[in-house]
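ugh ok so i messed up the first submission bc i forgot one of the chains. this is the corrected input, ALL of the components this time, i swear. 1022 residues overall. if the numbers dont match what u have on ur side tell me asap before i send this to the collaborators (the ones from the other lab, u know who)
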Amino acid sequence: MSKRALSTSREENFPEWYQVVVRDGDMAETSPVRGCMIIKPWGWGVWERIQAELDQRIKDTGHENCYFPLFIPMSFIAKEAEHVEGFAKEMAVVTHHRLKNEGGKLVLDPEARLEEPLIVRPTSETIIGDAFQRWVKSYRDLPLLINQWANVVRWEMRTRLFLRTAEFLWQEGHTAHADRADAMAETMRMLEVYREFAESVLAMPVIAGEKPANERFPGADNTFSIEAMMQDGKALQAGTSHYLGTHFAEAQNIQFQSAEGKLEHCHTTSWGVSTRLIGGVIMTHGDDDGLRLPPKIAPRQIVIVPMLRDKPEDAAVIDYCTALEKELKAKGIRALVDAKPVKSAEKRWSWVRRGAPVILEIGGRDVSGGNVTYMRRDRLRDGDKVVSHAKTRDAFVAEAASLLDDIQASLFQEAKVRLEGNIVAGMKSFDEVSAYFGATETDDEAGGTFKGWVEVPWARPEGGELEAIADKLKALKLTIRNAPLGQGKAAGKCIFTGKPAKESILIARAY
Amino acid sequence: MSKRALSTSREENFPEWYQVVVRDGDMAETSPVRGCMIIKPWGWGVWERIQAELDQRIKDTGHENCYFPLFIPMSFIAKEAEHVEGFAKEMAVVTHHRLKNEGGKLVLDPEARLEEPLIVRPTSETIIGDAFQRWVKSYRDLPLLINQWANVVRWEMRTRLFLRTAEFLWQEGHTAHADRADAMAETMRMLEVYREFAESVLAMPVIAGEKPANERFPGADNTFSIEAMMQDGKALQAGTSHYLGTHFAEAQNIQFQSAEGKLEHCHTTSWGVSTRLIGGVIMTHGDDDGLRLPPKIAPRQIVIVPMLRDKPEDAAVIDYCTALEKELKAKGIRALVDAKPVKSAEKRWSWVRRGAPVILEIGGRDVSGGNVTYMRRDRLRDGDKVVSHAKTRDAFVAEAASLLDDIQASLFQEAKVRLEGNIVAGMKSFDEVSAYFGATETDDEAGGTFKGWVEVPWARPEGGELEAIADKLKALKLTIRNAPLGQGKAAGKCIFTGKPAKESILIARAY
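and heres the new structure output, hopefully the right one now
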């Protein structure tokens, strides 16, 4: 079979390819509710693995999970003046608490109007800050390290499954500290947790760095991000970690008595990742046959397809497969026999599109020879031809865990080569940047040529100067992603201002 | 110390005692949002254990997790006429998607009024049914077995932490089947999953049975429940499982092509348990010193309190405790050294109130003798005296897992004796029932004498006859809980109608 398993390729139309992968990979679908998605079992299974892996890391770094209300009183939002100027305007607002039947029609009950509208949380800084203000009394209560897994809602006008939806799922960490040093250490610790998680679990290489002032979370002193490169060259912000200074503590009165008996404001942080990560995984690893899932987040790591022929020999094939599944499970591998009453070719391609890391096809000849025939989803084809491997059953079982490790590593390596090979450095002027990215009208929805990121020196301008630069970039649909951490001393001149450079920044188109 | 650790006792004032246990046990607190709670880390840890244990059982019975939108279009609710007559009227309604700043004040943006209001899901039958209608085509797609963990909102006027809150967390299972037999088998299977889970994980004995017609979920053909007896004698409905017939399938067009090529409506089920279970655990096991958690859901099963004296010997005590924690963890036990800079007596009582199953107090003498001193939370006192046990460290570690098993079993046994000893059978008339429960004005909020449940024969009346009975019971603040499964053949006469009895039912006051 040389035909690809999808109706579109990445090269033909990347945005459409994305939609097809999500749909044909059984990950999610749009719902009748504007901008809200239905996450299907396979997609949800990926999220469950993401949650489990990340939750362990969040707990290992001393945080405790809590749960705060879905709703936030409007007055809380109003208090956060900086918030209101930011993303938080487009929000779902609850104004009534009852429907009534009027002449057989369901209508809002005007008598059930809320005195104060409630906002469906777009993020929980304000409601959690209010609790912190009650919980924190003395330096002994610090640091206070809280996380919550929750759904949040931001009324987005243009939505795309996983990448930008009105409702999405995430974790949001919120912490309070006695001083800047401790809060900043927390901010960087969680950024590093995200980096390590993205790379080792999602097999998605990222660049960790600091956002420029114009891309900060409203109210943050410093915002850090991890940025991943998608296969169309665009950047995806995959996680953020914010040092909030004492802004939120001042607005919400989060104070503590220091060891010296002085009343001081806490320094707070927040950090989060969301179901958007799943979009990142798809656009990092997917190919023209569909999704390719890193084994660590694949709901099923090894899928066994029995090749049945409606003959008495089928029973032996099924027994062989079931025994194999049991042996693999005993080794802690998420294995599955797909015994659905569907043609085996159809099953094979459905698992290819879903991105199961290893797919076995077991027929009568495998059973009699004591062998297995399998495909690696990460290296499905040689040219156009699908590649099958054969091993003795015993060898396959013995080596299954290391096969999965190898797939995990090879997906990461492939993406890492792409990321590292597509950051162009050495440009000396904005014109060069502009020429590299080409015409401004490059349409998201059309193919376009692959453009990576550029890394350029700048003088870290602020205020109006920075705004003017952001506008210039915006005209080319570009944004500054971050200033990578751990870069050496800056050399040369700022490409925007001509002043001596303070650091290097990454510029890219982005999701 | 003979004084109890709480400011109120169960006997003095049960409802107040409940609130104190929730607060002093660090489980949850009210939030600034009417009727919504903040679940604190210790309470959330309990919910995480509940989720993990139940989720495994839900998956083991063949269900897959999904995620559906938080919002439901108003027209979906309107379609479910029976729904509208039921609980679903009091709901949070989203009418706008934007706030704006008007003269420095945050207000609803009238231009951002939604064409169709959105309801924050009170339950997801309608939105999931809509997906089922798209997903189900042929008998080959059946059974379709879906579960979701989610937050839901019902606008409750009188709320109580965990027991009745506007927002609560739950799992809701939704399944579609080819025929009644298969759907009914599913309904009963999940009821049994709940029973086994409640008894073996929560150590909470329950009676599984069928609800009378007037207590059915709106739109259900049959509703089954598990009912637990709280320490004030009241019943708590701890889980429900509904056989929905073809009502929802007809309203939502969930049809399939049968093997014979006929188009038929599916038979559907739904079933759920919620954070309410935590309220049940508290009122089943709590005592006048606070919460007592069954080890299977205790976030920390064994807590080690080092007795420090600000002396150089402290280091050895801490080392000893840390090594012990490590050994226990290696055995899969959730152990914790509480090294907070707080007096050890304060720590002891804080863990008593939180209900940690085993609390160790380790001092210099334990270290030099190679011993541990510990308390069992389930049997904290002998009379008024707190009972400490001593063991060699090696013996304690070797027997720790079986000690936890023993606590789990003993909490269950204690509750089982209470349940079985407080169901009064043999009453022959409604007057006897009325006399047993006494005056109608018995106030929930005051002490009152302990009243269990009564089990009486009835003829399973329907329609107006049943309504009249329900009203009579309501005047005594009583409800029919369920008709227990597996009861023998009914004998005697219906206490309401005098007709030959068809079965026995349980009558009780309830949460």
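quick check: The CA atoms of residues 456 and 504 of chain B lie 5 Å apart. that seems consistent at least. Residues 295-419 of chain B form a domain with the Rossmann fold fold (CATH 3.40.50.800).
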